[in-house]
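quick one, 318 residues, struct below
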Amino acid sequence: MLFYNVENLFDTLNDSLVFDDERTPQGRYKWQKTRYDRKIDHITRVLSEIGSEKTESAPDIIGLCEIENRKVLVDLVEHQNLLAHDYGIVHFPSPDERGIDVALLYKKRSFLPTSFVSHRLMLLDELGERNYTRDQLVVSGVLDDEPIHFLVNHWPSRRGGEQKSRPNRIKAAQLNKRIIDSILNLDVDAKIISMGDFNDDPKNDSFKKVLKTKGNRKTLDSMELFNPMEKLYKQGIGSLAYRDKWNLFDQFFMTSNLIQRNKGYFLWQAGVYAPSYLRTTNGKYAGYPFRTYAGTTYQGGYSDHFPVYLLLLKEYRD
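---
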């Protein structure tokens, strides 16, 4: 499976209900159809190629963030790079002030959704006014005959600085924990995977103090959450870079039963997908993600984030 922050995947139409004026042909980003089509080409290339060298197929499950609406999702799954995989879409419009949402794509032959719900994150600013942000998406279903639950996140940004914005991500983590706990209260053996752009690293309080994730399998008990990205972070691996510092905001974490080799799916490998074509090739930002825009200057790249992936294996016992 894959999670990808696709960096402001807007269509070119002006929607009067969201603040997308800048992302239109007349806006300051000059977001024209040729640029949109190229972006769709780029993103579908990544979605179709990631993991193919090990699985010989595109991912069964794809979490996305920074998508504007269902239309851009339809354009993705109906593109020639993805059409044969027959992806379904789970998406709810959220009240985010930038007009961006999260979504889940799934191969219809591999996964059957049985329920899906969007949980609203209620935030207030210093004046006590509503701070509109992304919902947290929960999709439950059956993956190759095995019940499983997916959470898709895009937590509040670090705008204004990490310390000032931290309380918003703490609240996002608290909501995520409540969702996970509610699922486990109904089924203590539920397998749950939470994915997203959390705008925090694995070491931050939202993970270590609220969700209480662990990166060491040996110290993990049956009711704790495992974060395979913590090991990558300690190795200096990141999914985005800012001012010569790498962050690993794009992550997966999961219930401990997904690292046990019992009957059903278990974790094999997690990683950051960063082939050469997703990297800036020269200049001051060589090696950084090859993004669509730098400020308002069109670069023609993919995204300002690298995607992250999770490989699961399934063990059968008689």
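The first helix runs from residue 33 to 49.
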